Amino acid sequence: MTLLIIGIAVFLGLHLLPTVAGLRERLIGWLGENGYKAFFSLLSVASFVLLVYGFARAPLIQVWSPPSWTRWVAVVLMLPAFIFLVAAYVPGRIKARLKHPFLIAIKIWALAHLIANGDLASIILFASFLAYAAYDRITLKRREATGLITVPATGPPRNDVIAVVLGAALYVAFLVWLHPLLIGTRPLP
Fold first, then answer.
1. Residue 142 near residue 65, CB atoms below 8 Å
2. Which of 17, 77, 85, 170 has the fewest other C-beta atoms within 10 Å?
3. Is the pLDDT of residue 145 over 70?
4. What CA–CA distance (Å, rounded) separates 48 from 58?
């Protein structure tokens, strides 16, 4: 469990750097733009690997036993999560309306998995990501007000169609093939 907690702390802590006023700019001044990006990328990958390894090695400590229907709630919630994930990278009306669809996708993903999983490692992992996304969304409002972040203008309607179609395709791919392959569990009974 220790590796999981360290992985979460480093990964999310690193992703919280931009929320600290002026810290990102000081790091760029010290490391340079490319140095900062390299540092951020390497630490992100390393901490993500540690997080995944720690989660896989964590003991199974059942805190609560979710009812079987919670699995279906998670399956349903994940469809919009995938659509919003794609919409974050395809500027359209969905992105303009939600402003930060990536964070909303993280919140939905974390909530869906909290509902469907009752073991301690899952609760720690998904609650951490839910708290991170909520905190980051709150700080984004401040960063937008100061001009550090700008919300892109809406894109053409076809981008929303792309987000929905590609998001749905990714959803099906994860539901049927990738979740069992990468995570080791089947979302569908």
1. no
2. 17
3. no
4. 15
Which range, of 38-52, 114-128, 142-156, averages the lowest pLDDT? Answer: 142-156
Please tell me the distance from the alpha carbon of residue 16 to that of residue 146, in angstroms, as a whole number.
Answer: 17
Bridge partners for 62 per DSSP: 119
Contact 4, 121 (CB under 8 A): yes
C-alpha dihedral over 132, 137, 139, 141, to 10 degrees? 180
Residue count of the chain: 189
Q: Which helix (H) or strand (E) holds 106?
A: helix 101-116
Among left, alpha and beta (phi > 0; psi -120 to 50; other), residue 91 is: beta
Question: What is the C-alpha separation between 151 and 124, in angstroms, rounded?
Answer: 31
| CA dist., res. 172 & res. 64, Å (int) | 28
pLDDT in tens, 83-94: 999 999 999 999
